[in-house]
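User:
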Amino acid sequence: MVNKEEFDVIRKKEGHPYCYEEIKVDVKSGMKVYTNVISYKVTKNKELDHHMPPSKSYLQLIIENGKNYGFPEDYLNYLEGFVALG
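Assistant: Predicted structure:
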């Protein structure tokens, strides 16, 4: 859980609401399901007609924070595989 100040920083970094819009999703982790989790989706005016993979630096950011917050090891290894490819 993040506080309001942290959430405002996340929104700013994500370019909300100009580049990314907030959507609510359900996230399953092991046997636990978290509902109404806020995620970000590119806004219609920024969509491309082809897939744009995340940058290596963005993947590294996800991996490092995943380690700090106890993401599953198999998921972190999966992400690290993409960094190795790039």
